[in-house]
Design goal:
The complex is a heterodimer of chains A (142) and B (108). Chain A has 142 residues and is mainly α. Chain A has helices at 4-7, 16-42, 46-53, 57-65, 72-82, 106-119, 135-141, and strands at residues 85-89, 121-125. Chain A has one domain (14-133). Chain A has seven helices and two strands, in the order H-H-H-H-H-E-H-E-H. Chain A is elongated. Chain B has one domain (5-103). Chain B has two helices and four strands. Chain B has helices at residues 5-23, 88-103; strands spanning 35-38, 50-56, 59-65, 73-80. The longest helix of chain B has 19 residues, at 5-23. Classes of the chains: A mainly alpha (142), B alpha+beta (108). Chain A binds chain B through residues 2-4, 6-8, 18, 21-22, 25-26, 29-30, 33-34, 36-37, 39-40, and chain B through 9-10, 12-21, 23, 26-32.
């Protein structure tokens, strides 16, 4: 049983657009949540992250809430500022399977979208590149 | 719930995604899954711990981790929370559900 079953009636068919939106929001939610967990582990506040990024606190808040679109560039900047290395994996073996058939049923589309999301992993791992918590590193960058 | 109609679909997706992440065993941030009030005390007066909330402003889903069933969370109820402090009635409602399920073993 998936969490979706709690919110959608059995037999509910999802349009392709809805499945795509779900997949997009799922990725945004899980990446921002991973970043928040990392920040908590590193005891880095949003204010501190904003300072390290040279951005405002509201910029960070919006980005981590998913309200502001995060680019790969900004994800990299955040990870760099936290001293962690993001690991983005795309499952090349699914590249043919996920070709959506316009005539396919919406259930099929949903299942394929789920299958794609299972293979798509964006991990924010705790491997330090440079420990940016060390004030000395920031002096070097400056 | 009094969520604007145009936001309902997004809320539903977001709520499902929060539960899915927890079910998948990923860590939840305390920002979006904060520890909220205290569970009812045991008969010997010991604390049974705290309950948490799935937070997606302005909605909260109050839940607890079962000690009776392994790797199981129960969601007590969702509220539209347009106020700051946890209300006693939500703690009470959760406490009743907790007692029914954890103490009396009645999952209904």
């Amino acid at each position: 049983m998936s969490a979706k079953d709690l919110f959608y009636s059995a037999g509910h068919e999802f349009s392709r657009a809805e499945a795509r939106t779900y997949a997009r929001e799922d990725l945004i939610y899980n990446v921002t949540e991973d970043l928040l967990v990392q920040m908590e582990q590193l005891s880095v506040t949003k204010l501190e992250l904003a300072r390290r990024l040279g951005k405002s606190r509201s910029y960070v808040t919006q980005m981590l809430s998913g309200a502001r679109n995060m680019t790969l560039g900004s994800l990299s900047d955040v990870c760099f500022a936290l001293g962690i290395k993001p690991d983005v994996q795309l499952p090349s073996q699914h590249s043919v399977e996920v070709e959506f058939d316009e005539g396919g049923s919406t259930t099929q589309v949903w299942e394929k979208a789920d299958s794609l999301m299972e293979g798509l992993v964006v991990q924010v791992i705790g491997e330090n590149i440079i420990d940016m918590r060390d004030p000395g590193q920031w002096e070097k960058v400056a | 719930m009094h969520v604007e109609a145009r936001k309902r679909a997004a809320f539903r997706r977001g709520m499902a995604q929060q539960i899915q992440r927890l079910a998948d065993g990923h860590r939840m941030s305390s920002e979006n899954f904060p520890k909220e009030g205290e569970l009812p005390k045991k008969t010997n007066g010991e604390s049974a711990g705290h309950f948490h909330a799935f937070k997606r402003i302005p909605v909260r889903g109050y839940c607890w981790r079962s000690k009776r069933l392994e790797n199981t969370w129960f969601i007590s109820h969702y509220v539209y929370k347009d106020y700051q402090k946890l209300k006693a009635r939500d703690t009470e409602r959760l406490g009743k559900n907790w007692t029914r399920i954890e103490v009396n073993g009645d999952e209904r």
